[in-house]
Specification:
globular, 9-stranded antiparallel sheet, Immunoglobulin-like, 185 residues, 9 strands, mainly beta, binds copper (II) ion
């Protein structure tokens, strides 16, 4: 008589019962957006999308996507500024930087402010930027851009040189071309 492996179905049922997969609780994505408008030029318009997710090690990261039309061709500094106000664009205040260094030295920390991003390059009046930052969060916490007075994007007239010789006038992009208040979706 052929040896029938009757034990196999039982064993596979047992091993399936013993295998308890780790509970992976998918966190709902936190997203935000901003409508971008020119500070004085109504031809400048755009939109920003932000999405917070965690790295494999659990670090909060925020993807930033920006599309802006109507800027002059070339590079433009982009930062998250400290206040959710765009009228006038100066009301957005300085660069978002809630850490202790930013509190004590609001201008001196460039390009290491929490809200410092990278340059946006405009070509034929169209500009897109895709970047990821670990310096801010959308969720509550010490680096949340949704603090008591909110935050806003500022797009500057010139490029961010990242101030290699220390902070000098205009090295972080100079005057302000466009602004957008950041809102949770
Ligand atoms: Cu700025």
């Amino acid at each position: 008589m052929k040896n029938r492996r009757i034990g196999l179905p039982f064993l596979s049922t047992l091993s399936a019962l013993m295998y308890v997969p780790a509970l992976v609780m998918a966190e709902p994505a936190i997203t935000a957006h901003a409508e971008i408008s020119g500070c004085s030029d109504p031809a400048i318009t755009g939109r920003a999308e932000l999405k917070e997710h965690r790295s494999e090690e659990g670090v909060k990261q925020v993807d930033v996507m920006l599309v802006v039309n109507g800027l002059s061709d070339g590079k433009h500094a982009v930062h998250i500024h400290e206040t959710a106000k765009c009228e006038p664009c100066g009301a957005a205040g300085g660069h978002f930087d809630p850490g202790p260094y930013g509190m004590s030295n609001p201008d001196g920390n460039h390009p290491f402010h929490s809200g410092d991003l990278i340059n946006l390059t405009s070509k034929n009046g169209k500009a897109t930027l895709k970047t990821t930052t670990t310096r801010i969060t959308l969720s509550p916490g010490p680096l949340s851009i949704f603090d008591t007075d909110g935050s806003a994007f500022i797009i500057h007239t010139n490029e961010d040189t990242y101030c290699p010789e220390g902070v000098a006038k205009g090295c972080a992009g100079g005057s302000r071309d466009a602004c957008g208040i950041i809102l949770l979706k």
